Protein backbone atom coordinates (compact mmCIF):
# COMPACT_ATOMS: atom_id res chain seq x y z
CA UNK A 1 0.00 0.00 0.00
CA UNK A 2 1.32 3.40 -0.97
CA UNK A 3 0.65 6.36 1.29
CA UNK A 4 -0.38 9.58 -0.43
CA UNK A 5 -0.20 13.01 1.20
CA UNK A 6 -2.90 15.54 0.36
CA UNK A 7 -1.84 19.18 0.72
CA UNK A 8 -4.19 22.13 1.21
CA UNK A 9 -4.97 23.37 -2.32
CA UNK A 10 -5.43 26.95 -3.47
CA UNK A 11 -9.22 27.18 -3.72
CA UNK A 12 -9.05 30.36 -5.77
CA UNK A 13 -8.88 34.14 -5.43
CA UNK A 14 -5.21 34.04 -4.38
CA UNK A 15 -5.97 33.01 -0.80
CA UNK A 16 -2.94 31.86 1.16
CA UNK A 17 -4.43 30.11 4.19
CA UNK A 18 -7.54 28.46 5.55
CA UNK A 19 -8.90 27.18 8.85
CA UNK A 20 -9.73 23.52 9.39
CA UNK A 21 -13.35 23.68 10.50
CA UNK A 22 -14.37 20.02 10.65
CA UNK A 23 -12.87 16.71 9.60
CA UNK A 24 -15.43 14.48 7.91
CA UNK A 25 -13.21 11.39 8.24
CA UNK A 26 -11.09 9.71 10.91
CA UNK A 27 -7.99 7.51 10.76
CA UNK A 28 -8.98 4.07 9.50
CA UNK A 29 -11.95 5.30 7.44
CA UNK A 30 -12.25 4.17 3.83
CA UNK A 31 -12.68 6.92 1.24
CA UNK A 32 -13.28 7.03 -2.50
CA UNK A 33 -12.20 9.66 -4.98
CA UNK A 34 -14.37 12.79 -4.58
CA UNK A 35 -15.62 11.88 -1.10
CA UNK A 36 -15.70 14.98 1.08
CA UNK A 37 -12.97 14.66 3.71
CA UNK A 38 -12.77 18.07 5.39
CA UNK A 39 -14.57 21.40 5.65
CA UNK A 40 -12.33 24.47 5.57
CA UNK A 41 -13.01 28.17 6.03
CA UNK A 42 -11.13 30.75 4.01
CA UNK A 43 -11.39 34.49 4.44
CA UNK A 44 -14.32 34.43 2.04
CA UNK A 45 -16.20 31.15 2.14
CA UNK A 46 -16.75 27.70 3.59
CA UNK A 47 -15.48 24.96 1.28
CA UNK A 48 -15.81 21.18 1.44
CA UNK A 49 -12.68 19.52 0.05
CA UNK A 50 -13.08 16.18 -1.75
CA UNK A 51 -10.42 13.50 -1.68
CA UNK A 52 -8.26 13.10 -4.81
CA UNK A 53 -7.34 9.56 -3.69
CA UNK A 54 -9.15 6.34 -2.87
CA UNK A 55 -7.95 4.31 0.07
CA UNK A 56 -7.73 4.28 3.85
CA UNK A 57 -7.25 7.41 5.92
CA UNK A 58 -3.91 7.34 7.68
CA UNK A 59 -3.15 10.47 9.71
CA UNK A 60 -4.90 13.83 10.09
CA UNK A 61 -2.00 16.31 9.96
CA UNK A 62 -3.95 19.40 11.00
CA UNK A 63 -6.31 19.76 13.93
CA UNK A 64 -9.77 21.32 13.82
CA UNK A 65 -9.58 25.05 14.52
CA UNK A 66 -6.01 25.38 13.26
CA UNK A 67 -5.00 27.71 10.43
CA UNK A 68 -3.04 26.03 7.63
CA UNK A 69 -1.11 27.62 4.79
CA UNK A 70 -1.84 26.63 1.21
CA UNK A 71 0.53 23.82 0.17
CA UNK A 72 0.83 22.38 3.68
CA UNK A 73 0.05 18.64 4.12
CA UNK A 74 -3.23 18.02 5.93
CA UNK A 75 -3.96 14.29 5.58
CA UNK A 76 -2.41 11.01 4.47
CA UNK A 77 -4.33 8.31 2.62
CA UNK A 78 -3.06 4.79 2.05
CA UNK A 79 -3.84 3.51 -1.42
CA UNK A 80 -3.06 0.38 -3.41
CA UNK A 81 -3.20 2.34 -6.65
CA UNK A 82 -1.54 5.72 -6.79
CA UNK A 83 -3.72 8.28 -8.53
CA UNK A 84 -3.03 11.78 -9.72
CA UNK A 85 -5.21 14.39 -8.07
CA UNK A 86 -7.21 16.60 -10.37
CA UNK A 87 -6.27 20.28 -10.47
CA UNK A 88 -8.14 22.60 -8.11
CA UNK A 89 -8.60 25.76 -10.13
CA UNK A 90 -11.79 27.23 -8.75
CA UNK A 91 -14.65 26.75 -6.35
CA UNK A 92 -18.18 25.96 -7.42
CA UNK A 93 -20.94 26.71 -4.94
CA UNK A 94 -24.24 24.84 -5.25
CA UNK A 95 -27.66 26.41 -5.34
CA UNK A 96 -29.28 26.89 -1.91
CA UNK A 97 -31.54 23.89 -2.52
CA UNK A 98 -28.57 21.64 -3.07
CA UNK A 99 -27.95 19.62 0.13
CA UNK A 100 -24.29 19.30 -0.70
CA UNK A 101 -21.48 21.77 -0.15
CA UNK A 102 -18.95 23.54 -2.32
CA UNK A 103 -16.68 21.32 -4.36
CA UNK A 104 -13.47 21.99 -6.22
CA UNK A 105 -13.87 22.09 -9.97
CA UNK A 106 -12.04 19.16 -11.48
CA UNK A 107 -12.75 16.83 -8.56
CA UNK A 108 -16.43 16.39 -9.40
CA UNK A 109 -19.16 15.40 -6.98
CA UNK A 110 -18.88 11.91 -5.67
CA UNK A 111 -20.83 9.83 -3.22
CA UNK A 112 -20.55 9.73 0.52
CA UNK A 113 -17.52 8.66 2.47
CA UNK A 114 -17.76 4.98 3.23
CA UNK A 115 -16.79 5.02 6.86
CA UNK A 116 -18.08 4.44 10.34
CA UNK A 117 -18.65 8.19 10.80
CA UNK A 118 -20.28 9.07 7.50
CA UNK A 119 -22.83 6.34 6.84
CA UNK A 120 -25.68 8.01 8.78
CA UNK A 121 -25.03 11.34 7.05
CA UNK A 122 -26.42 10.12 3.74
CA UNK A 123 -29.99 9.75 4.94
CA UNK A 124 -32.29 11.74 7.19
CA UNK A 125 -31.75 10.95 10.85
CA UNK A 126 -34.38 11.10 13.52
CA UNK A 127 -33.58 12.96 16.72
CA UNK A 128 -34.82 11.93 20.11
CA UNK A 129 -37.44 14.68 19.93
CA UNK A 130 -38.88 13.24 16.71
CA UNK A 131 -37.40 15.70 14.22
CA UNK A 132 -36.19 14.18 10.95
CA UNK A 133 -33.36 16.12 9.28
CA UNK A 134 -30.00 15.48 7.66
CA UNK A 135 -26.84 16.52 9.54
CA UNK A 136 -26.12 19.47 7.18
CA UNK A 137 -29.62 20.79 7.89
CA UNK A 138 -29.05 20.41 11.63
CA UNK A 139 -25.79 22.33 11.34
CA UNK A 140 -27.55 25.09 9.40
CA UNK A 141 -30.23 25.26 12.08
CA UNK A 142 -27.58 25.56 14.81
CA UNK A 143 -25.80 28.32 12.89
CA UNK A 144 -29.04 30.27 12.44
CA UNK A 145 -30.26 29.65 15.99
CA UNK A 146 -33.32 27.73 14.79
CA UNK A 147 -35.07 25.15 17.00
CA UNK A 148 -35.78 22.26 14.63
CA UNK A 149 -38.66 21.13 16.80
CA UNK A 150 -40.44 24.38 15.92
CA UNK A 151 -39.93 24.00 12.16
CA UNK A 152 -42.73 22.67 9.95
CA UNK A 153 -41.18 20.00 7.65
CA UNK A 154 -42.00 19.95 3.94
CA UNK A 155 -39.81 17.08 2.72
CA UNK A 156 -41.43 14.12 0.93
CA UNK A 157 -40.51 11.80 3.81
CA UNK A 158 -41.57 14.28 6.47
CA UNK A 159 -38.04 15.60 6.93
CA UNK A 160 -37.03 19.18 7.55
CA UNK A 161 -35.42 20.67 4.45
CA UNK A 162 -32.92 23.46 3.99
CA UNK A 163 -35.67 25.79 2.76
CA UNK A 164 -37.76 24.99 5.84
CA UNK A 165 -34.96 26.12 8.14
CA UNK A 166 -34.19 29.25 6.14
CA UNK A 167 -37.85 30.29 6.00
CA UNK A 168 -38.20 29.74 9.75
CA UNK A 169 -35.18 31.98 10.27
CA UNK A 170 -36.88 34.85 8.43
CA UNK A 171 -37.71 36.46 11.77
CA UNK A 172 -34.02 37.13 12.29
CA UNK A 173 -33.23 37.84 8.65
CA UNK A 174 -30.52 40.41 8.09
CA UNK A 175 -32.43 41.58 5.03
CA UNK A 176 -35.86 42.24 6.57
CA UNK A 177 -36.91 45.73 7.48
CA UNK A 178 -39.27 47.60 9.81
CA UNK A 179 -39.13 45.03 12.62
CA UNK A 180 -35.97 44.68 14.66
CA UNK A 181 -34.54 41.39 15.96
CA UNK A 182 -35.89 40.35 19.33
CA UNK A 183 -33.46 40.50 22.24
CA UNK A 184 -32.86 37.36 24.24
CA UNK A 185 -34.38 36.90 27.67
CA UNK A 186 -31.00 37.65 29.25
CA UNK A 187 -29.55 40.97 28.12
CA UNK A 188 -26.53 41.00 30.42
CA UNK A 189 -24.81 38.44 32.57
CA UNK A 190 -23.02 39.40 35.74
CA UNK A 191 -19.89 37.36 36.40
CA UNK A 192 -18.42 37.29 39.90
CA UNK A 193 -15.14 39.10 40.32
CA UNK A 194 -13.56 35.98 41.76
CA UNK A 195 -14.63 32.39 41.82
CA UNK A 196 -15.29 30.99 45.32
CA UNK A 197 -12.92 28.13 44.58
CA UNK A 198 -10.24 30.28 43.01
CA UNK A 199 -7.00 30.72 44.95
CA UNK A 200 -5.95 34.19 45.99
CA UNK A 201 -3.67 35.98 43.55
CA UNK A 202 -0.07 36.49 44.48
CA UNK A 203 2.39 39.14 43.42
CA UNK A 204 4.09 36.70 41.06
CA UNK A 205 0.94 35.18 39.57
CA UNK A 206 -1.35 37.10 37.16
CA UNK A 207 -5.01 37.49 38.08
CA UNK A 208 -7.19 35.21 35.95
CA UNK A 209 -10.94 34.84 36.13
CA UNK A 210 -13.93 34.25 33.88
CA UNK A 211 -14.66 37.90 33.13
CA UNK A 212 -12.64 37.95 29.90
CA UNK A 213 -11.97 35.62 27.03
CA UNK A 214 -9.65 35.73 24.05
CA UNK A 215 -11.06 35.13 20.56
CA UNK A 216 -8.51 34.38 17.81
CA UNK A 217 -8.79 36.78 14.87
CA UNK A 218 -8.97 34.69 11.72
CA UNK A 219 -11.13 33.86 8.74
CA UNK A 220 -13.81 36.41 7.91
CA UNK A 221 -13.08 38.55 10.98
CA UNK A 222 -9.42 38.83 10.03
CA UNK A 223 -10.22 39.70 6.42
CA UNK A 224 -12.83 42.26 7.50
CA UNK A 225 -10.46 43.90 9.97
CA UNK A 226 -7.68 44.20 7.41
CA UNK A 227 -10.00 45.59 4.72
CA UNK A 228 -11.71 48.12 6.97
CA UNK A 229 -8.42 49.35 8.45
CA UNK A 230 -6.94 49.78 5.00
CA UNK A 231 -10.02 51.64 3.74
CA UNK A 232 -10.37 53.89 6.77
CA UNK A 233 -6.75 55.05 6.63
CA UNK A 234 -6.31 55.30 2.85
CA UNK A 235 -9.56 56.83 1.57
CA UNK A 236 -10.69 60.21 2.96
CA UNK A 237 -14.29 59.49 3.96
CA UNK A 238 -17.04 62.10 3.82
CA UNK A 239 -20.50 61.19 5.13
CA UNK A 240 -23.93 62.67 4.42
CA UNK A 241 -27.50 61.71 5.27
CA UNK A 242 -31.11 62.74 4.66
CA UNK A 243 -34.51 61.85 6.16
CA UNK A 244 -36.99 60.39 3.68
CA UNK A 245 -40.75 59.86 3.58
CA UNK A 246 -40.77 56.27 2.31
CA UNK A 247 -44.53 55.75 2.55
CA UNK A 248 -44.94 55.19 -1.19
CA UNK A 249 -42.07 52.73 -1.16
CA UNK A 250 -43.90 50.77 1.54
CA UNK A 251 -47.09 50.90 -0.55
CA UNK A 252 -45.18 49.57 -3.57
CA UNK A 253 -43.67 46.76 -1.51
CA UNK A 254 -47.15 45.81 -0.34
CA UNK A 255 -48.48 45.75 -3.92
CA UNK A 256 -45.57 43.68 -5.20
CA UNK A 257 -46.07 41.14 -2.41
CA UNK A 258 -49.69 40.77 -3.48
CA UNK A 259 -48.83 40.49 -7.19
CA UNK A 260 -48.97 37.01 -8.78
CA UNK A 261 -45.85 37.92 -10.77
CA UNK A 262 -43.86 38.10 -7.52
CA UNK A 263 -45.62 35.30 -5.62
CA UNK A 264 -42.48 33.14 -5.40
CA UNK A 265 -40.02 35.97 -4.68
CA UNK A 266 -39.14 37.67 -1.40
CA UNK A 267 -39.98 41.37 -1.55
CA UNK A 268 -38.67 43.96 0.90
CA UNK A 269 -37.80 47.67 0.92
CA UNK A 270 -34.22 46.60 0.16
CA UNK A 271 -35.36 45.75 -3.38
CA UNK A 272 -36.61 49.30 -3.97
CA UNK A 273 -33.45 50.67 -2.36
CA UNK A 274 -31.35 48.61 -4.78
CA UNK A 275 -33.33 49.90 -7.77
CA UNK A 276 -32.97 53.46 -6.46
CA UNK A 277 -29.20 53.10 -6.09
CA UNK A 278 -28.78 51.72 -9.62
CA UNK A 279 -30.90 54.57 -11.02
CA UNK A 280 -28.90 57.18 -9.08
CA UNK A 281 -25.54 55.68 -10.13
CA UNK A 282 -26.52 56.11 -13.76
CA UNK A 283 -27.14 59.81 -13.11
CA UNK A 284 -23.86 60.30 -11.19
CA UNK A 285 -21.34 57.79 -12.65
CA UNK A 286 -18.42 59.00 -10.51
CA UNK A 287 -20.05 57.40 -7.46
CA UNK A 288 -19.52 54.07 -9.24
CA UNK A 289 -15.81 54.78 -9.78
CA UNK A 290 -12.69 53.83 -7.82
CA UNK A 291 -9.32 55.37 -6.99
CA UNK A 292 -6.49 53.25 -8.40
CA UNK A 293 -2.80 53.72 -7.61
CA UNK A 294 -0.54 52.61 -10.48
CA UNK A 295 3.15 52.82 -11.29
CA UNK A 296 2.36 55.72 -13.61
CA UNK A 297 0.41 57.57 -10.96
CA UNK A 298 -3.11 57.62 -9.58
CA UNK A 299 -6.10 57.01 -11.83
CA UNK A 300 -9.85 57.05 -11.40
CA UNK A 301 -11.55 53.99 -12.87
CA UNK A 302 -15.17 54.67 -13.84
CA UNK A 303 -17.18 51.46 -14.23
CA UNK A 304 -20.08 51.51 -16.71
CA UNK A 305 -21.69 48.55 -15.01
CA UNK A 306 -22.94 47.97 -11.47
CA UNK A 307 -21.83 45.00 -9.40
CA UNK A 308 -24.07 45.81 -6.45
CA UNK A 309 -22.72 44.68 -3.09
CA UNK A 310 -25.01 43.91 -0.15
CA UNK A 311 -23.36 43.92 3.28
CA UNK A 312 -24.64 40.81 5.07
CA UNK A 313 -24.33 39.84 8.72
CA UNK A 314 -23.99 36.04 8.64
CA UNK A 315 -23.09 33.31 11.14
CA UNK A 316 -19.51 33.57 9.77
CA UNK A 317 -19.30 37.33 10.18
CA UNK A 318 -19.67 40.28 7.81
CA UNK A 319 -19.71 39.35 4.11
CA UNK A 320 -20.24 41.65 1.13
CA UNK A 321 -21.35 39.51 -1.83
CA UNK A 322 -22.35 41.40 -4.95
CA UNK A 323 -24.84 41.00 -7.76
CA UNK A 324 -23.02 41.11 -11.08
CA UNK A 325 -24.37 43.51 -13.76
CA UNK A 326 -27.30 44.55 -11.59
CA UNK A 327 -27.93 47.51 -13.90
CA UNK A 328 -29.20 45.13 -16.59
CA UNK A 329 -31.79 43.43 -14.38
CA UNK A 330 -35.53 43.97 -14.31
CA UNK A 331 -37.24 44.27 -10.93
CA UNK A 332 -38.21 40.60 -10.67
CA UNK A 333 -34.75 39.43 -11.77
CA UNK A 334 -33.12 41.72 -9.22
CA UNK A 335 -35.46 40.42 -6.51
CA UNK A 336 -34.47 36.83 -7.32
CA UNK A 337 -30.79 37.79 -7.25
CA UNK A 338 -31.21 39.41 -3.82
CA UNK A 339 -33.02 36.33 -2.54
CA UNK A 340 -30.28 34.00 -3.82
CA UNK A 341 -27.62 36.22 -2.28
CA UNK A 342 -29.50 36.15 1.03
CA UNK A 343 -29.83 32.36 1.15
CA UNK A 344 -26.23 31.59 0.22
CA UNK A 345 -24.89 34.21 2.66
CA UNK A 346 -26.92 32.80 5.55
CA UNK A 347 -25.67 29.31 4.81
CA UNK A 348 -22.05 30.44 4.61
CA UNK A 349 -21.89 29.22 1.02
CA UNK A 350 -21.08 32.52 -0.69
CA UNK A 351 -18.33 31.84 -3.21
CA UNK A 352 -15.14 33.95 -3.34
CA UNK A 353 -16.09 35.09 -6.85
CA UNK A 354 -19.34 36.55 -5.53
CA UNK A 355 -17.38 38.67 -3.04
CA UNK A 356 -14.97 40.27 -5.49
CA UNK A 357 -15.40 42.86 -8.21
CA UNK A 358 -18.04 44.94 -6.43
CA UNK A 359 -18.50 48.56 -7.57
CA UNK A 360 -20.87 49.95 -4.91
CA UNK A 361 -22.33 48.64 -1.64
CA UNK A 362 -25.62 48.89 0.27
CA UNK A 363 -25.75 48.12 3.99
CA UNK A 364 -29.18 47.60 5.52
CA UNK A 365 -28.63 48.76 9.10
CA UNK A 366 -32.34 49.29 9.62
CA UNK A 367 -32.82 45.59 10.42
CA UNK A 368 -31.08 46.26 13.72
CA UNK A 369 -33.28 49.24 14.58
CA UNK A 370 -30.52 51.71 13.66
CA UNK A 371 -31.56 54.97 12.00
CA UNK A 372 -28.30 56.11 10.41
CA UNK A 373 -24.55 55.64 10.44
CA UNK A 374 -21.23 56.46 8.81
CA UNK A 375 -20.24 53.15 7.19
CA UNK A 376 -16.71 52.46 5.98
CA UNK A 377 -16.27 52.15 2.23
CA UNK A 378 -15.61 48.69 0.87
CA UNK A 379 -12.05 48.58 -0.63
CA UNK A 380 -12.01 49.13 -4.38
CA UNK A 381 -15.15 51.26 -4.33
CA UNK A 382 -15.91 54.97 -3.95
CA UNK A 383 -19.03 54.82 -1.83
CA UNK A 384 -21.39 52.91 0.42
CA UNK A 385 -24.97 53.76 1.33
CA UNK A 386 -26.94 52.73 4.41
CA UNK A 387 -30.70 52.19 4.66
CA UNK A 388 -31.94 52.99 8.16
CA UNK A 389 -34.93 51.61 10.01
CA UNK A 390 -38.31 52.47 8.47
CA UNK A 391 -40.61 53.67 11.23
CA UNK A 392 -43.93 55.48 11.45
CA UNK A 393 -43.21 59.05 12.54
CA UNK A 394 -45.00 62.37 12.47
CA UNK A 395 -44.34 64.12 9.14
CA UNK A 396 -45.59 67.39 7.75
CA UNK A 397 -47.67 66.85 4.57
CA UNK A 398 -49.38 69.85 2.96
CA UNK A 399 -49.07 71.82 6.16
CA UNK A 400 -50.52 69.05 8.34
CA UNK A 401 -48.75 66.61 10.65
CA UNK A 402 -49.51 63.05 9.60
CA UNK A 403 -48.09 59.61 10.44
CA UNK A 404 -45.76 58.50 7.63
CA UNK A 405 -43.21 55.75 7.08
CA UNK A 406 -39.90 57.57 7.54
CA UNK A 407 -36.33 56.37 7.07
CA UNK A 408 -32.85 57.90 6.94
CA UNK A 409 -30.52 57.34 4.01
CA UNK A 410 -26.86 57.88 4.88
CA UNK A 411 -23.61 57.16 3.12
CA UNK A 412 -19.85 57.53 3.05
CA UNK A 413 -17.82 58.43 -0.03
CA UNK A 414 -14.20 58.68 -1.16
CA UNK A 415 -13.57 62.42 -1.42
CA UNK A 416 -10.61 61.77 -3.74
CA UNK A 417 -12.99 60.45 -6.37
CA UNK A 418 -16.16 62.48 -5.98
CA UNK A 419 -16.85 66.01 -4.77
CA UNK A 420 -19.58 67.29 -2.51
CA UNK A 421 -21.98 68.23 -5.29
CA UNK A 422 -21.87 64.74 -6.77
CA UNK A 423 -22.30 63.14 -3.35
CA UNK A 424 -25.26 65.35 -2.51
CA UNK A 425 -26.88 64.78 -5.91
CA UNK A 426 -26.55 61.00 -5.54
CA UNK A 427 -28.06 60.91 -2.04
CA UNK A 428 -30.87 63.22 -3.15
CA UNK A 429 -31.62 60.96 -6.14
CA UNK A 430 -31.85 57.86 -3.94
CA UNK A 431 -34.12 59.73 -1.55
CA UNK A 432 -36.30 60.91 -4.44
CA UNK A 433 -36.93 57.35 -5.62
CA UNK A 434 -37.77 56.13 -2.13
CA UNK A 435 -40.25 59.01 -1.85
CA UNK A 436 -41.66 58.42 -5.34
CA UNK A 437 -40.80 54.99 -6.85
CA UNK A 438 -42.59 56.02 -10.06
CA UNK A 439 -39.35 57.79 -11.01
CA UNK A 440 -37.98 54.36 -11.87
CA UNK A 441 -40.34 54.28 -14.86
CA UNK A 442 -38.40 56.95 -16.75
List keywords for this structure.
about 450 residues, alpha+beta, OB fold (Dihydrolipoamide Acetyltransferase, E2P), Dihydrolipoamide Transferase, Chloramphenicol Acetyltransferase, 3 domains, eight-stranded mixed β-sheet, four-stranded antiparallel β-sheet, 7 helices, 22 strands, globular
Average residue-wise pLDDT: 78
The structural domain count equals 3
Number of strands: 22
Low-confidence stretches: 82-129, 171-208
Task: Output the structural class.
Answer: alpha+beta
The CATH architecture category of the largest domain equals 2-Layer Sandwich
Shape: globular
Cα Rg:
25 Å
Q: Order of SSEs, N→C? A: EEEEEEEEEEEEHHHEHHEEEEEHEEEEH
Query: What's the CATH first level of the largest domain?
Result: Alpha Beta
What report would you give on this structure?
It is a single chain. The protein is built from 7 helices and 22 strands. By secondary structure, it is α+β, with helices and mostly antiparallel strands. It has 3 domains: 2-119, RNA polymerase II/Efflux pump adaptor protein, barrel-sandwich hybrid domain (OB fold (Dihydrolipoamide Acetyltransferase, E2P)), CATH 2.40.50; 123-172, Irregular (Dihydrolipoamide Transferase); 219-441, Chloramphenicol Acetyltransferase (2-Layer Sandwich). The strands form 6 sheets. Strands 13, 16, 17, 18, 19, 20, 21 and 22 form an 8-stranded mixed sheet that branches. It has a 4-stranded antiparallel sheet with strand order 1-8-6-3, with no helix packed on it. A 4-stranded antiparallel sheet has the order 5-4-2-7, with no helix packed on it. α5 crosses α7. The longest helix has 16 residues, at 219-234. The radius of gyration is 25 Å and the shape is globular. Mean pLDDT is 78; it is low at 82-129 and 171-208.
Amino acid sequence: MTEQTFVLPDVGEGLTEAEIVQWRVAPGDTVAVNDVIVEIETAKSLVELPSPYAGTVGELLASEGSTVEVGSPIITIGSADVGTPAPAEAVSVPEPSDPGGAVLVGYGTGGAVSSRRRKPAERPVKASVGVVAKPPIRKLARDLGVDLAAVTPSGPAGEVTRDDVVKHAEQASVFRNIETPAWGAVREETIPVTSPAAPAATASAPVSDAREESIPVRGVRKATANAMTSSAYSAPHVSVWVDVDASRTMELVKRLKASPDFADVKISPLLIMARAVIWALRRTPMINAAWVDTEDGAQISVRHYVNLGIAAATPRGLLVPNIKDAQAMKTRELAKALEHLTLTAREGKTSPADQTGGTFTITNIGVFGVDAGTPIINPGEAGIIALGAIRQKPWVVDGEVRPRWVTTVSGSFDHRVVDGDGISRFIADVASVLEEPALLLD
